[in-house]
Every structure is written in C-alpha cells, then in structure tokens.
Amino acid sequence: MELDPKTPQYLTSDPKSFASVSAHERWPVIVTGAIDDLHRTVGDVTDEEKRAEGKSIIENLAKLKYELQHNRQLTPLPDDGEPDIAEYNKELEQRGNPTWHNVAWLFSECYLYRRIATLFRLSKHWKSYDVFSRQKMSTFKSSRPAVLELAGKYKQLAQEAESSKGTDGKSPEQVEEAEKLLFSEMCEICLWGNATDLSLLTSLTYEDIQKLQGAEARKSSQKNIIVNDMDAAFDVLREARKTKKNQERRVDIVLDNAGFELFVDLILAGYLLSAGLATTVVLHPKTIPWFVSDVIPKDFSDLLNALYDPQAFYTAPDDTGKTYEPLSDREVEEVKFLFSQWSHFHAEGKLVLRPHRFWTTPGSYWRLPTTAPELFEDLKQSELVLFKGDLNYRKLTSDADWDPTTPFTTAIGPLGPKSGMRTLAFRTCKADVVVGLPAGMDEKLRQTEKGGGDSGARKWAWSGKWAVVSFCDGKV
Length: 476
Ligand code: F6P
Ligand code: MG
Description:
Elements: H1 18-43, H2 48-69, H3 84-94, H4 105-121, H5 133-142, H6 144-163, H7 172-192, H8 206-213, H9 215-221, E1 225-228, H10 230-243, E2 250-254, H11 260-274, E3 280-284, H12 297-308, H13 310-315, H14 329-347, E4 351-353, H15 368-371, H16 373-380, E5 384-388, H17 389-396, H18 408-411, E6 422-428, H19 441-446, E7 467-473
Parallel strand pairs: 1-7, 2-3, 2-5, 3-4, 5-6
Antiparallel strand pairs: 6-7
Helix pairs in contact: 1-2, 6-11, 6-14, 7-11
Bound molecules: 6-O-phosphono-beta-D-fructofuranose and magnesium ion.
C-alpha cells in the first residue's frame, strides 16, 4: 500500500461509484453463477469422495455470498501454499479488516476471486477446476458471427501486411500511410474485443454481445475512442523495425479476457508478426481463474482446439438441444488458416505464453518494480507492453479518483517516463477511473444520455461504450 499513489481509491461504500453497484448487485450474481456451475458438474460425479468435496466447496461459496450480501468482514485467506496469500492477508490487516460494503473496490474485488481460488486449491480433487470455464467457452461459441467475419478478413489483412513490406509501386509515404491505417484497424479490432467481458454479462444479453462485435459496430464506435495514442505506438514499432532490423523485437500483451477477446488479441499478434512489427509476441495470462473471464493457460489451448475443428465446435448442440447451421467450406477453410498460422507461430517460439502470479496480486501496478522486479526487468526488454482491458487500466492507475485531466504518464507512477518500459493501454471504460482527458470532456460526457448528468456519478464510463488508448514511452 505504501507503494501506491496518495490519491484515494474508489470505495464500495461510495453510492456514486460503480464500486457500489459491483459490490451490491454484481458480485452476488457472479458467485451464484459459480455455485450453479459447480452444482451441474458435481451432479455428474460418481466418485463419492470427489462428490462430497464438491458439495463442500458449494457450501463455502454460499457462505462467501452470504458474507458479502450481509456486509460481513473480509476474513484472512487460508494458506493454500501460494506466496501471495501472505501479501493479501497483510494488506487486509493494514486496511483494518474492512467489511464488504466499505472497502477499496480494487482490493476487495481481487480478494473475492482469490478467495474463490483458495477453495479449489485446498481441495484434493478440484485443484485445477475452472468454475468459469463453461461460461467462457459458451460465450466464445456465441461469438461465431464475429469470429467468422474476422477469420475471413484476416487472411487478406495478413497478406496485405506482408506486401506492405515492399514498395509495390507506391511512394514510401503512401506505404507508411497505408501501414499506419492497417495498424489502426488491427488495434481497433483488438480494443473493442474488450467490450464484452463476462463479469458484465450480468447486464448484457448474447444478442448485445454479437452487436458489439461486428465490423459495423467498430466503425460506428471510432468516434467513441476519446483518447487515441495508436499512432505514437505505431511510430515506436516502425522505428524499432528500422533500427533493429535483424534483432529480436518483442511486443508483450498483458491479456485480459478469454474467448473472443483472446481471439482478437491473437489476430493482432499474428498481424504484428506478419508485418514485421515484432519478431516475438509474449502473452501474459493469469495463473488462476480471475474476474470470471480472464485468460488462464488452458483457455489458450481450449481456443486453439475449438479452431482446429470449427465445424464440430460451432455446430455442437448446446445444453438446451438447440442446433446450429453448419459452416460453409470457405468459412471452415478461413478459420483453419488462422489456426495453422497461430500454431505455427507458437511452435516456432514467436508466440509465447508466460504466466506470472503478479497479475493476480491485490495491488496496483505501481508496485510492479518493487514486488516483482524480475518481471519488471523482463518487460523492459520489450519494445512495447500492451495492457488489455478495464482491470489492467484500473491497476495501472491504482483505481484512484484522479482528476480526469491528469496525464496518463503521471497516473501510472513508477511505470511512467524513464521507467524503461513502454506502456500502451487498450481499455473500454467499465469503471470510474479515467485519466488523460482534455479539460471539459468528462463534464460533456456526463451530459450525454445515461452519462450520469448532475448525479455526481461518472456513469458514461461504466458501460464499455467509450474507450481510451493511452501510451507512455517509458524508454525516454
Ligand atoms: O464492470 C466492472 C468490472 O467487472 C470491473 O470490476 C473490472 O474492472 C471489469 O469489469 C473487468 O473488465 P475487464 O475484463 O475489461 O478487465
Ligand atoms: Mg477481464
């Protein structure tokens, strides 16, 4: 905590903050979802010991739900053998053993998912069970229209990216301009893939998700990117390609959600590799199930398995017996093209998965250089570290109540100028914190429909409708 900024963090006790909505309304629904999932799985278990253990986890989840709904104190986490438990418990004590409805939002939300993880880690038969996996895969299945649309586009774009390495009869300025545009398009695909995380599914339908994911939605959302540093990010990658021609040039992606968002992250990664803007892309998943939809390593293999046989995956009847139209031969071929490119990059060591426990610790990324120095050193080797999603943005800025005109480079503290690390954040806004806005912009957005008006709440920033792309060159 001593490493975090002095600016106060958002609290679950503040009725004007999305923290309060999350703690009162959304978390109980999320825990109920976990209980339902486990219930279904336990129902099919024949091994008596495993079944009994599963039931006991269900009871503990119900207890957790009771505690949070009745505003009980957060209790110390049981030791499940992992080193971060001590850090959680120390911070819990430093925060004065708070109750669920009067605690820093960021800390308590991390605690919630870490506590759920202990229930499984401490079991004999359920250690690696991911209580959110079913939900992640079924949402990916419902992303079929957007996946097929992008798969169709990808082949053409990957080829364009490769051909723009040459001059093609165009002037160098035209080549550069075309490449910049393509880069922006890839980034936009990757950015808006974040609009659909599952912890928000408590308020979105699958139809809403499909609408959010298509090309038309992206076009009409361009104007909703209220801070856009994509060009600056492109410039550093292009410059590195020029000056470090035959050397390794790494781009890192600190992942957010599985399923469709991971799919678009891989689209961006594949494009960067094809265009020579990176020679290696390192992906950073979580090590435990996190914020419902975040990527753990198994989600990566689940995604590749689904794409290996898209016909089987997309046409398997669901639990209700609903059946699906078969994919056309062309659609199957296009998805398989993606699969083969990505597996190829993976096999060649150009697409690497590097999990680290730091990502599921309770604190802000202001703590990174001190609490995970080896990870920080590693990230400094990268040309660019892309942080995906809302939670990563909250952690970069410590989820603090900054004045919205505070520069991003200030709000990320020790990761800012001269840190040695280049930071790029792609975030659709789903929480209160926001920085780097021009003066007057927050006020203007509050006056838009459902923007919060004069209520004192920054509601425009809660729904994923608006986005920020913020960059800080920490190498200068
Ligand atoms: O909408 C709120 C929320 O659940 C936040 O608690 C969290 O920051 C975010 O959504 C998760 O979103 P993302 O998957 O984009 O990090
Ligand atoms: Mg997430």
